[in-house]
């Protein structure tokens, strides 16, 4: 899971955003591949190329409901002078034994059914009288309602070229072709292709299991009544949803009170189902910042490289951060600040790339672009900090949403981008081109 230890923290060192992310990505390693059933592999990343064992389609088949005929027998056919052919029976999809179509004959054929021996083309039923002798029809009668339609004669009113309305064997993919490349993320179309070529299982890196927990005695679950000084726990819901959006299997743990022993034991209990642990809150410098208290001394003397470092980053929001590994399997842990916006921005910058790295993806970052700032006044930013402001992006322009406060959840809900203000910039005028992280 992780083969390198995080760099030791210097309490006086102000880490850059890039240094912290580099440390995380140098420590986290892709999960080991496993063999999964197709539906269990949805959202996972292939670790090997998949070769087509059988051509698709595996045989020539009809793309229409109609009649399988010889080209010469319908040449020159018209409504005034129709070709009249003997119907020798039905050819249905999945039928094992096929009829033979000889000169002057036709076989009623269904969409997907194999082209029978002797037939060279398919005439759509709409070009015929359907065997009823009453002019062109709009479709076939169900066999149960008109079994006589599979025998007798059919009048054909239009000619058909060779192999018209015939799907050729191997016209989709041929045996030996590469169906999917290693590194492909398996979505519904890819799973459909795997099933179509007969693959019931596939070798992938599994979706990482991420455990998310909030800390704070003031936190109350939604639907419960608020007491004095209490607030609803939104962070654990936001981050669990964000982890799932990133591709993980995410588990939300109820808020843990401000007690270091309780938190330590809760985390230890969760390690059995975690490839990554994410906490939010309790990483600053207050007297009740229990994540630091619980995890600062969690390093195992028998497990070199374990432990969690707590750092200050040159960013806003999200200055206090924690990162390390815990437990016998060196499970990565990221400790995020507790303010909702700080927590979410930190997730996007640090946790999401970690999750995507565990998945084995080549590109682990959100897309970025350049956009023109649309605002009523200049944006200000603290010197020496990389600021991430919530924004709304559209058609090459971005406008700030809400204020800079790290508690403004309502504004966060309206944002689909982060406006990046570099460390050496203290003011950004309207009309300036800025870097934008696209969140949606």
The tally of helices reads 8
Q: How large, in whole angstroms, is the Cα Rg?
A: 32 Å
The pLDDT mean sits at 89
Q: Which term fits the overall shape?
A: elongated
Fraction of residues in helix: 10-25%
Low-confidence stretches: none
Strand order of the largest sheet: 1-19-21-22-18-14-17
Instruction: Report how far apart the termini are.
Output: 28 Å
Largest sheet: 7 strands, mixed
**Extended strand count:** 29
Beta-strand content bin: 25-35%
Q: Give the class from helix and strand content and strand pairing.
A: alpha/beta
Keywords:
440 residues, alpha/beta, seven-stranded mixed sheet, five-stranded mixed sheet, 8 helices, 29 strands
List the helices and strands and how they pair.
Blueprint: E1 14-15, H1 17-27, E2 34-37, E3 45-46, E4 50-51, E5 61-62, E6 66-69, H2 71-74, E7 83-91, E8 105-109, E9 121-124, E10 152-156, E11 166-167, E12 178-180, H3 188-196, E13 201-205, E14 209-215, E15 219-220, E16 231-232, H4 235-246, E17 249-256, H5 260-270, E18 276-280, H6 290-295, E19 307-313, E20 315-316, E21 320-326, E22 331-336, H7 340-359, E23 368-373, E24 379-380, E25 386-394, E26 397-400, H8 409-414, E27 417-421, E28 427-428, E29 433-438
Parallel strand pairs: 1-19, 7-8, 14-17, 14-18, 15-16, 18-22, 20-25, 23-26
Antiparallel strand pairs: 2-13, 3-13, 4-12, 5-11, 6-8, 6-9, 7-10, 19-21, 21-22, 23-29, 24-28, 25-26, 25-27, 27-29
Helix pairs in contact: 1-7, 4-7
